[in-house]
Structure formats: structure tokens, C-alpha cells
Write a structure and sequence with these properties.
The chain is mainly alpha-helical. It has helices at 2-19, 22-30, 39-72, 77-113, 115-126, 143-152. It folds into two domains: 2-72, no CATH class; 75-130.
């Protein structure tokens, strides 16, 4: 049992020696004799003692900064999601434009091959008439005026 106590006491002493700054360690090991420690040695010991917590704080701050940049930054997660939404909208617009192009190509082919289609377009859009035809232009009635007039009667 006495050996176990000596082992534990020695382990505690070694643990304290590892955790304590050099200046305190020298003062404890010398017992009653206190050897003065020079200022640069004390400053170096203090820096060693403070370094780990300070480095941990800096490491955590850098990790948080990288996380923030990865989520909110210029090319972060939020920007990526916005780009995906924009891509979907543009693909939808491209599909609609491709459908319109196909419809217009069909219309062009019909105009090239069908003389009746050419005549219909000429009459509707250019107001052409065949010989002995009379074009009568009627005024267009707006739907809002028609509803107002119908409600008043």
C-alpha cells in the first residue's frame, strides 16, 4: 500500500510540473531556497502557459469564420441555392423560347408552302383585299366600356 501512495504522489508531482510555469516549478522544487528567475525567462514561461488557451481561441475563431464564409460568403451555401433557383427559372424560360421557336418555324413553313396561309396573313395584318372586295373597319369596343354600358341600362 505504501508503494501505491508513493506512486500517486510522484504522479501528482509530475502532473503539477507539466502544468505549472517554469518559474513556479523552480520555486517549489527548491523548497525554502527561492532562486530569483530573470525577467525574460519569466516572460517566456508566461507565454508558454498562455499559449494553449490563446491558440485554442484563435483556432475556434478561425473555424467560425470559415463556417460563416461557407454559409453566407460570396460563393457560400446561400448564394449556391440562389443560383440553383435562378438556373431553374432560366431553364424554364429557355424551354418556353424553344417552344415558341418551333411554333414560329411551323408558321414559316406553312407560309412558304401554302398560298392560302399567305392570303390570310396579308388580309389580317396588311389589310390587303382581293379584287371586288370591300374592307369595312369597325371600331373596337373596349370590354370595360361594354360592361359599364350594359350595367346602366
Amino acid at each position: 500500500m505504501d508503494g501505491a501512495r508513493k506512486f500517486i504522489a510522484k504522479a501528482k508531482m509530475l502532473w503539477k510540473a507539466d502544468c505549472m510555469p517554469e518559474g513556479k516549478r523552480q520555486a517549489e522544487t527548491n523548497g525554502a531556497e527561492k532562486v530569483p528567475v530573470s525577467m525574460p525567462v519569466r516572460a517566456l514561461n508566461w507565454l508558454r502557459w498562455v499559449w494553449r488557451p490563446a491558440a485554442s481561441v484563435v483556432a475556434v475563431a478561425l473555424a467560425l469564420l470559415l463556417l460563416w464564409h461557407g454559409v453566407i460568403g460570396k460563393n457560400g451555401l446561400l448564394a449556391w441555392q440562389q443560383k440553383r433557383v435562378e438556373e431553374r427559372e432560366l431553364r424554364k424560360e429557355i424551354d418556353e423560347l424553344n417552344q415558341e421557336n418551333a411554333r414560329l418555324r411551323d408558321h414559316i413553313e406553312r407560309l412558304k408552302s401554302d398560298p392560302d396561309a399567305i392570303g390570310i396573313v396579308a388580309r389580317e395584318q396588311l389589310h390587303y383585299a382581293k379584287p371586288n372586295e370591300v374592307i369595312v373597319a369597325l371600331p373596337l369596343e373596349k370590354p370595360a366600356q361594354a360592361q359599364t354600358a350594359g350595367a346602366g341600362k
